Task: inverse folding
């Protein structure tokens, strides 16, 4: 895992104000990168003042998004990268996770709580992100998908 | 910390004491392999003691469901014992608490099998 200043226009567009703190990571599509990103999200959540439980949940939502990006977005293609952005402002902690895959339609993901899906062994990641975070946005990058996870600091 | 798993027998009930994380990769695979092994040996009454599990992700939840289904399909029953608050919260959020038979009392869990 290496820190890098990305040239991606997506991140440029979301560059936070001078009062906020932000940093970016560009990762290979390897599952060994998941734990370090999760740890970093938890560290930043603590720094933002969220309690232990909330910080752990934010880290888990990040974990789910990174796993999705590696497995379902980039399909572990070594040529494709996952880009992570962390931004902390007075209002919120925002974490973006972008892949270079074929794109994701979040509305096409079945409700994992529906009786016909409850015994499925997968498909709960996006549901957990939405349950944990205050806002979850999906941006189509062409190619790829960026998931934006936001937790408001006023709700901490 | 990855997951550790220890099996013990109480009468004809097999209790698996789990601790650590059940996540994508090691923890989930360990659980899956152990449950399959027990089923192959003819075990029908299985309790997962999750007292030491302080972390589970969506893949881990999937492994719990997968184990539940595998045991049920083999004509057995799988129950959960001693959920930590974090695991319980996730089972509530995902409505999986409505699927599993859950208790905090090991003797009651053992006695509850038909």
Result:
């Amino acid at each position: 895992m290496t820190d890098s200043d990305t040239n991606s226009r997506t991140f440029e567009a979301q560059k936070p104000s001078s009062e906020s703190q932000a940093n970016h990571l560009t990762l290979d599509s390897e599952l060994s990168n998941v734990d370090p990103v999760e740890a970093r999200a938890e560290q930043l959540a603590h720094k933002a003042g969220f309690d232990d439980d909330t910080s752990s949940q934010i880290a888990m939502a990040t974990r789910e998004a990174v796993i999705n990006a590696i497995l379902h977005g980039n399909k572990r293609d070594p040529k494709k990268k996952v880009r992570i952005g962390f931004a902390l402002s007075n209002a919120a902690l925002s974490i973006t996770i972008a892949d270079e895959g074929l794109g994701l339609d979040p509305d096409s993901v079945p409700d994992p709580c529906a009786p016909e899906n409850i015994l499925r062994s997968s498909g709960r990641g996006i549901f957990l992100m939405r349950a944990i975070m205050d806002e979850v946005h999906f941006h189509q990058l062409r190619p790829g998908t960026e998931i934006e996870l936001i937790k408001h600091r006023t709700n901490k | 910390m990855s997951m550790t798993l220890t099996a013990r027998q109480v009468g004809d009930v097999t209790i698996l004491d789990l601790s650590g994380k059940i996540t994508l990769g090691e923890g989930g695979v360990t659980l899956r392999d152990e449950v399959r092994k027990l089923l192959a040996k003819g075990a029908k009454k299985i309790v997962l003691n999750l007292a030491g599990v302080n972390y589970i992700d969506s893949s881990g939840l999937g492994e719990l469901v997968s184990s539940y289904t595998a045991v049920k399909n083999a004509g057995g029953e799988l129950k959960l014992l001693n959920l930590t608050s974090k695991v319980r919260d996730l089972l509530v959020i995902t409505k999986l608490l409505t699927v599993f038979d859950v208790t905090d009392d090991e003797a009651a869990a053992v006695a509850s099998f038909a």
Remarks:
- The longest strand of chain A covers residues 21-28.
- The first helix of chain A runs from residue 9 to 13.
- Residues 19-155 of chain A form a domain with the Heat Shock Protein 90 fold (CATH 3.30.565.10).
